[in-house]
Write a structure and sequence with these properties.
420 residues; Rossmann fold; 43% helix
């Protein structure tokens, strides 16, 4: 059966099975719409109005953490001007579904291009992002001809929420590391009937798509990554490295010297920080916005990179689903070697990795020399490298005009290699 027929068959099964309780590996694909209860929104406004603000910190704005003036303005906008229902309606324009894989409900948007030869592409977010990061790239990827592109570069998009994030399920077992989430996404693509697909991601999504290129290489034909990973090699660390690359990396490390505490906390005590994040919307906003400030190319004003509505829509995904605590656990699970969750079915993959491509944005967390990244992957796997003139960690959200053509360029290379 061809992929389109399999997808249609899955949707027919979903329509017939939606009322039934989800099983451990229920193959049904159930249509999903976001519908936040009015009571949840009323409670949110009440909590925002009762925010107990701390005293201002000394020093420069943002030096001790999120600037008090900025956060007060953001919370006031959230309480009095932000219209969740408008953004909920916009998000619901994306066809969304859920399905149960390995005991966990997986939420995903599935936007098929009208071009039948489009390449399936899974887009994977990280923390503190969500599937809403990719809303700006949906049109350019699925209908490139309407955005100055070519029909042959079209993609069918699958945009999942990570396990424990957003509208995906909250696992009750330990061991749900990013690698195991990658396995689930490989199974999701198979369930949708995609025997051949590409992958793109950043942050945790960057690691996940790298895993897909190697762990599901029989089906994932290539992965584009905007989160280059590459630590200093033990032997000959300066081989192939320029002084300019070292200076750039060291300068960025100095900029972020005081910005790594979140990772230590979420990697060791995620439940402890989770109580506050789940109870205080202002606290949740501060915890998330701090990362958008540190990791974006805002030139001194966050409004240069993201509107307040864009930031708040992403924050709302965490608030209305109460997934700040469970999403934080990805740091703990990925740094503790817990056994494979009992609910997970086996997965067979591996072999020679599919091609990788990287886009390096100047305000990314990690900006290693290209040679270090090349040495961290299997030889001859890295076939594409772009150093961007601007932008940061949340590339699809901040600089879609740069990310989209780079992804297209990479997959043109992948297709040409396949055709040889």
């Amino acid at each position: 059966m061809n992929p389109r027929a399999l997808v249609l068959a899955g949707l027919l099964v979903a329509a017939a099975s939606a009322p039934c309780a989800a099983q451990t590996n229920d193959p049904a694909i159930r249509p999903f719409k976001i519908a936040v209860p009015d009571a949840t929104l009323a409670d949110l406004k009440d909590r925002l109005a009762k925010t107990r603000w701390p005293a201002p910190a000394p020093g420069e704005p943002w030096e001790y953490g999120v600037d008090l003036g900025y956060l007060k303005a953001l919370v006031e906008h959230w309480r009095t001007a932000y219209d969740w229902r408008k953004h909920e309606r916009a998000l619901n324009q994306l066809p969304q579904f859920t399905t149960t894989i390995d005991g966990v409900e997986i939420h995903f948007a599935h936007v098929r291009s009208k071009h039948t030869n489009a390449l399936p592409l899974i887009l994977v977010h990280g923390w503190p992002g969500s599937f809403v990061e990719f809303t700006k790239v949906v049109g350019p990827f699925t209908e490139p001809e309407k955005h100055g592109g070519k029909v042959e570069d079209a993609f069918h998009l699958v945009i999942p929420s990570l396990v424990g994030f957003g509208f995906s399920g909250k696992p009750t077992e330990r061991g749900w590391s990013s690698q195991r989430m990658a396995e689930v996404f490989a199974k999701l693509m198979a369930r949708l009937g995609y025997a051949r697909y590409g992958a793109q991601g950043g942050d945790w999504g960057g690691g996940i798509v790298r895993w897909l290129a190697g762990g599901d290489n029989a089906h994932c034909i290539g992965a584009h990554n905007n989160f280059p990973g590459g630590s200093q090699p033990a032997e000959e660390p300066m081989r192939g490295v320029t002084q300019a690359e070292m200076d750039r990396m060291q300068a960025r490390r100095k900029e972020l010297a005081d910005h790594y505490g979140y990772s230590s906390i979420q990697g060791s005590r995620p439940q402890t920080i989770g109580y506050g994040l789940n109870d205080s919307p202002a606290g949740l906003a501060a915890w998330i916005v701090d990362k958008f400030w540190a990791w974006s190319d805002h030139r001194g004003s966050l409004d240069n990179s993201f509107t307040k509505d864009e930031l708040l829509t992403n924050i709302m995904i965490y608030w209305v689903t109460q997934t700040a605590p469970t999403s934080a656990r990805i740091y703990y699970e990925s740094s503790h070697n817990h056994p494979r969750p009992a609910s997970m079915t086996p997965f067979t993959g591996g072999g020679k990795s599919s091609p990788m491509g990287y886009a390096l944005f100047p305000k990314e967390i990690n900006i290693p020399p290209r040679a270090w990244v090349e040495r961290s992957v299997i030889p001859n796997i890295l076939i594409h490298w772009t150093e961007m003139p601007r932008g940061g960690h949340f590339a699809a959200m901040e600089t879609p005009d740069l990310l989209v053509p780079d992804v297209i360029k990479f997959f043109r290379l992948v297709r040409s290699r396949e055709a040889r």
